[in-house]
Amino acid sequence: MSATPTDFTRRTGRPAPAARRILRQGGYEILAMLKNGEQLLLLILFPLMALIGLTSTGFLDGWAREFGASRVDLAMPGILALCTISTALSGQGIATGFDRRYGVLRFLSTTPLGRGGLIAGKALAVLGVMVVQYAVMGAVGLFLGWEPRPTAVLASVPPWCSGPPAFTALGLLVAGTIRAEATLAVVNTLWVLLATVGGTLLPAALPRRGRRPDRAAALRGPGLG
């Protein structure tokens, strides 16, 4: 007398649907990034420090006079761009580099997730973390007086759609080419260069000379004028 196969035996060996596998991998990567203290410094704390620094000092005053905007209105686009770089380039580059070092990528590529699912999960993780970053930075920016205009928000959609894939691809390229320690150094160096001299936080072009703040007059003060 033969036994009738149960539902459990019928389902044995069947992988979950591709969409579910990608969602689970993306959720795992999001939690891994947000639970890591070093990643939180890079993803949340450093952009917050940059936002507070730019709005509480006079670095942007020359451009503020030229464009007729407040410090926070000038700072927020660069801060959001820095969040994208932090997550897509540095975050994914570092995580993928060390996953490659410890054989995690080789293991995952042999599972039903596959290479394509792994990359899709990483892309989903980048978008998920960026949503958290944008929510935090947006809340702080609004508290500091940020007034986003609808036209500016619409104009930011194309860069927002093209930036994360480009920086994620660059981070994965670096992580897949050199050792994990070298990846850590390279992506962090790129992050610093892009933030400081790459036109991310400060406009690449100097304000027009006629509207630059007169530092000499400010140093002389009213009694020495």
TrEMBL record:
The chain crosses the membrane at residues 40-59, 79-98, 119-146, 182-206. Keywords: Membrane, Transmembrane, Transmembrane helix. It comes from the Bacteria. InterPro entries: Nod_factor_ABC_transporter. This is ABC transporter. It comes from Rothia kristinae. The lineage of its organism: Bacteria, Bacillati, Actinomycetota, Actinomycetes, Micrococcales.
